[in-house]
C-alpha cells in the first residue's frame, strides 16, 4: 500500500499518490471496520520499527502483517521477539508472513501474536501442498502454535490460471473448508477472491459462522500422515473438521463430547460421491441431521478430501412452534371481549395460572360518547383493558376464565387512572410481581395532541406485588404508587410500555421495554434496557437494545438462558426491512451475551410467521400474532409460547361476534414447544 515494498524509499509512515492512508483509516473507523496494515521488513528497518508502529497505532490500526523478514535464523528469532513486544506496547496485533521463524509457544506470553505463515502456505500457490501435508503438520508444527497455511481455496479448478497463482492446488473444496477447522490458524486469512466465495455461498456459510477465535478444541481421532478429526467450540456451537491423505476412507465420529440432553442441528459439508483431489475438486454436497451425545456418525471422505460439520447449539424455536398442532384447547377466546396476551406461571397447586388483558366489544362500559369515540371496539384497549385471571391443569390449556383481577384505579391523581394492560407475571425470591401498563391522560401536559395521543403519551409501567400467588389471586396485592420508570426525554420519549423483567446472574434485575423515537410519539418504536436492585424498582435506564427504524419492534419477552449463559428476547417484528424476519408482524428472536450490550438477531432469528397449524394439518394464516410470553423451565428453556392472535383485523368491526364476523375477534393461543427440537 505504501509503494514497492522492497524499495528502501517506500515510506510506511506516510501516504503516497496511490493511497491516502489517513483518509482510508478515517473511513474505516467511521464504518466500524478494523484495519491491519502490511509492513515489509525493508521499510521497518529503514524508517525505524518503533516509529512505524507508533504511527500505525496513531492512525488507529488494529494490527500489523509483517512480511519477508531478513537475516540469519538467530537474527530473525531476536527480531521477531522485538516486533511482538513493540506491537504489544502500541496495542497492535501481529501476523508474520513470508519466511517467519517457526512457532515456539511464544504466543502464550504474547497473546497479540496471532499466527505465523509456517508449515507451508497456499498463498499464491508457489508450491502447492498435497493432502498428506495438513494431516502431518497438524500433529507436528501446530503443537507449538497456530499455522497460517492460507486454507480455504474454493476455485480449485481455475485458480492457477490467475496472475500470481503459480500452480494447481490439489484438494477438494470440502477439504479446504475442513482445513479451516482442523488447522488452527489464530486468524483465518482466506486466499481466494470474493467472487469465488459468492459462487459457493452455501459452502461459504460455514465460514461465515466461524468466530475469529475458538473457545476450546478436542482432537477426536487421527493418525499422523493418514487422517485427523478435530472439534472446536465457539460459544454454544461446535465445528468439526475431518481430513484424509490421498486415500479415500470412511470415519466414524463419536459425539460423546457434547453435553447430555442437548440436541444439535448439524450441517454437514461433504465431498460428493465422485470427488477427487486431482480431477474432481469442486463437487460437494450439504445435508442436515440432528445430533446428540449418543450419536456416532459415519462420514465418507474422498481421496484427498474432507468433511466440515457445523453443530448449532443456538436456541431454535421456529421448527417446534411451526410444526405444533393447535386445537380448541390451545385457544382462549371470549365472545364479548377482545382477548390479548397471556402471561403464565405455575402455582404450588400444580396448576397453571394465566394473567391476560381483555376489554369489552362495542361500546360496552364507554362512559363519554364524545371522547370515547376514539375507544370503541378494539381500540378500547387503551382505556378499558383489564387484567383477567384464568387457570388450567395443563401448560397449554384449556384455560378457564375465573375473574377480573386489576382494572384502572379510577383515581384521577394516580398514574393508573385508566386501563390495566399487557401483564407480565414473575416470581422472584418467593414473591409475585405482576408488571403491567396503564395511563392517565391528565398527566400528559403536551399540547396539540388529539385525544388518542393524549392517552398513548401517558402510558407508564407499574407493578402489583404480592407475598404469594395465592395472595395475588385473592386480591391481596399492592400496586406501585408511581411508575417504576418514565421517559427521560433524551433517549426515551412520549411513553414507556410493554415491560419484561428478568434476573441476571449477578442478582440485579433487568427490564426490557418499548418507547418512541420522537417526542410527539409518532416516531418508530425503540427498545431499551433498564436496571434495578429490586424487582419493584425503580428502574434506571442502562442502554439501547434497538433504536434504528429497520429494527423497529414491540412486545418483548426477555429472559436469561442458564444453559447457554446468554440472554434472549422474543419481539414482534414491526419493520419491513427484513433484518429480523422475512414477514412484517412475525415473531423474532434476538440475543445478547450480557443482556445489556450488543443486542443482535439470533442465529435462528425467526420464531414464528403469522400462522399456525391446526389439528388437521391445515395452515391457518393470521392477521396478528403478538404479545409473546413464555413458560420457562428452571434453566430458562422455553416450554410453551403464549401469544395474542386474530384471523382477520380486529379494527374493522366493533362487535365482531354480534355483527356475524367472529373471525375478526381476537384470542390467545398456547403453543407447546417440543424440546426434541
Q: Could you describe the 3D structure shown?
A:
The protein has 677 residues and is mainly beta. It has 12 helices and 35 strands. The strands form 9 sheets. The chain has a 6-stranded antiparallel sheet. The longest helix is centred in the N-terminal third of the chain and has 17 residues, at 73-89. The chain is elongated and about 90 Å long. The mean pLDDT is 94.
Number of strands: 35
Largest sheet: 6 strands, antiparallel
What's the N-to-C terminus distance?
50 Å
Average pLDDT for all residues: 94
Amount of beta strand: 35-45%
Record the strand order, biggest sheet.
5-6-7-12-9-10
Q: Low-confidence stretches at least 5 residues in length (pLDDT < 50)?
A: none
Number of helices: 12
Find the structural class using helix and strand composition: mainly beta
Summarize the helices and strands and which ones pair or pack.
Blueprint: H1 21-30, E1 36-40, H2 41-47, H3 49-59, E2 63-67, H4 73-89, E3 93-97, E4 113-116, H5 134-137, H6 173-182, H7 194-199, H8 201-209, E5 216-223, E6 227-234, E7 237-244, E8 249-254, E9 264-271, E10 284-291, E11 296-301, E12 306-312, H9 318-323, E13 325-326, E14 331-332, E15 337-346, E16 352-360, H10 381-384, E17 386-392, E18 400-406, E19 418-428, E20 431-439, H11 451-456, E21 460-466, H12 469-474, E22 478-479, E23 493-503, E24 509-516, E25 525-532, E26 540-546, E27 553-561, E28 566-573, E29 587-592, E30 600-608, E31 611-614, E32 619-621, E33 624-632, E34 638-646, E35 666-672
Parallel strand pairs: 1-2, 2-3, 3-4, 13-31
Antiparallel strand pairs: 5-6, 6-7, 7-12, 8-11, 9-10, 9-12, 14-35, 15-16, 16-17, 17-18, 19-20, 20-21, 21-22, 23-24, 24-25, 25-26, 27-28, 28-29, 29-30, 31-32, 33-34, 34-35
Helix pairs in contact: 2-3
Amino acid at each position: 500500500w505504501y509503494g514497492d515494498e522492497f524499495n528502501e524509499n517506500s515510506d510506511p509512515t506516510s501516504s503516497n499518490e496511490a493511497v491516502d492512508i489517513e483518509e482510508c483509516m478515517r473511513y474505516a473507523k467511521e464504518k466500524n471496520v478494523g484495519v491491519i496494515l502490511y509492513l515489509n521488513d525493508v521499510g521497518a528497518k529503514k524508517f525505524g520499527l518503533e516509529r512505524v508502529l507508533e504511527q500505525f497505532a496513531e492512525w488507529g490500526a488494529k494490527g500489523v502483517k509483517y512480511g519477508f523478514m531478513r537475516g540469519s535464523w538467530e537474527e530473525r528469532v531476536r527480531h521477531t521477539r522485538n516486533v511482538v513486544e513493540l506491537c504489544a506496547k502500541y496495542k497492535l496485533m501481529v501476523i508474520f508472513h513470508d519466511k517467519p521463524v517457526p512457532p515456539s509457544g511464544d504466543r502464550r506470553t504474547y497473546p497479540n501474536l496471532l499466527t505465523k505463515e509456517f508449515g507451508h502456505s497456499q498463498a499464491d500457490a508457489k508450491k502447492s501442498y498435497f493432502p498428506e501435508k495438513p494431516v502431518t503438520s497438524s500433529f507436528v508444527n501446530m503443537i507449538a502454535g497456530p499455522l497460517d497455511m492460507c486454507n480455504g481455496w474454493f476455485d480449485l479448478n481455475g485458480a492457477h490460471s490467475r496472475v500470481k497463482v503459480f500452480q494447481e492446488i490439489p484438494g477438494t473444496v470440502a477439504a479446504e473448508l475442513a482445513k479451516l477447522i482442523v488447522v488452527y490458524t489464530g486468524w483465518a486469512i482466506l486466499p481466494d477472491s470474493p467472487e469465488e466465495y459468492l459462487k459457493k455461498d452455501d459452502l461459504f456459510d460455514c465460514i461465515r459462522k466461524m468466530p475469529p477465535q475458538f473457545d476450546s478444541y478436542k482432537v477426536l481421532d487421527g493418525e499422523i500422515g493418514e487422517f485427523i478429526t478435530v472439534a472446536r467450540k465457539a460459544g454454544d456451537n461446535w465445528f468439526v473438521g475431518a481430513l484424509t491423505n490421498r486415500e479415500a476412507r470412511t470415519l466414524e465420529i463419536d459425539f460423546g463430547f457434547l453435553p447430555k440432553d442437548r440436541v444439535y442441528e448439524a450441517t454437514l459439508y461433504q465431498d460428493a460421491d465422485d470427488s477427487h483431489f486431482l480431477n474432481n475438486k469442486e463437487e460437494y454436497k450439504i445435508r442436515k441431521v440432528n445430533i446428540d451425545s449418543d450419536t456416532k456418525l459415519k462420514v465418507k471422505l474422498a481421496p484427498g478430501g474432507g468433511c466440515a460439520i457445523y453443530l448449532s447449539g443456538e436456541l431454535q424455536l421456529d421448527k417446534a412452534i411451526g410444526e405444533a398442532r393447535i386445537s380448541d384447547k390451545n385457544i382462549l377466546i371470549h365472545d364479548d371481549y377482545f382477548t390479548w396476551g397471556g402471561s403464565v406461571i405455575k402455582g404450588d397447586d400444580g396448576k397453571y395460572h394465566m394473567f391476560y388483558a381483555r376489554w369489552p366489544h362495542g361500546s360496552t362500559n364507554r362512559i363519554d360518547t364524545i371522547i370515547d369515540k376514539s375507544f370503541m371496539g378494539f381500540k378500547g384497549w387503551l382505556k378499558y383493558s383489564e387484567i383477567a385471571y384464568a387457570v388450567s391443569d395443563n401448560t397449554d390449556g384449556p384455560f378457564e376464565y375465573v375473574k377480573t383481577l386489576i382494572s384502572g384505579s379510577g383515581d384521577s391523581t394516580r398514574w393508573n387512572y385508566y386501563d390495566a394492560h399487557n401483564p407480565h407475571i414473575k416470581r422472584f425470591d418467593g414473591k409475585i410481581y405482576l408488571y403491567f401498563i396503564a395511563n392517565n391522560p391528565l398527566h400528559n401536559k403536551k399540547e396539540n395532541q388529539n385525544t388518542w395521543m393524549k392517552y398513548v403519551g401517558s402510558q407508564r409501567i407499574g407493578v402489583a406485588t404480592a407475598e404469594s400467588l395465592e395472595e395475588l389471586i385473592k386480591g391481596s396485592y399492592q400496586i406501585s404508587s408511581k411508575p417504576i420508570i418514565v421517559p427521560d426525554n433524551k433517549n426515551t420519549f412520549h411513553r414507556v410500555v410493554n415491560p419484561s423483567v428478568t434476573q441476571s446472574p449477578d442478582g440485579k434485575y433487568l427490564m426490557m421495554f418499548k418507547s418512541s423515537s420522537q417526542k410527539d410519539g409518532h416516531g418508530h418504536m425503540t427498545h431499551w434496557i433498564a436496571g434495578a436492585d429490586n424487582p419493584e424498582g425503580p428502574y434506571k435506564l442502562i442502554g439501547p437494545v434497538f433504536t434504528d427504524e429497520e429494527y423497529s419492534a414491540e412486545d418483548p419477552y426477555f429472559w436469561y438462558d442458564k444453559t447457554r449463559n446468554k440472554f434472549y428476547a422474543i419481539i414482534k417484528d414491526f419493520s419491513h426491512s427484513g433484518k429480523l424476519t422475512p414477514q412484517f408482524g412475525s415473531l423474532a428472536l434476538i440475543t445478547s451475551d450480557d443482556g445489556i450490550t450488543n443486542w443482535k438477531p439470533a442465529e435462528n432469528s425467526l420464531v414464528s410467521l403469522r400462522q399456525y397449524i391446526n389439528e388437521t394439518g391445515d395452515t391457518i394464516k393470521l392477521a396478528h400474532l403478538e404479545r409473546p410470553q413464555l413458560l420457562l423451565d428452571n434453566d430458562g428453556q422455553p416450554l410453551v409460547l403464549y401469544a395474542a392472535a386474530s384471523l382477520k383485523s380486529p379494527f374493522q368491526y366493533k362487535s365482531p361476534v354480534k355483527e356475524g364476523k367472529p373471525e375478526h375477534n381476537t384470542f390467545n393461543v398456547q403453543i407447546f414447544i417440543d424440546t426434541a427440537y
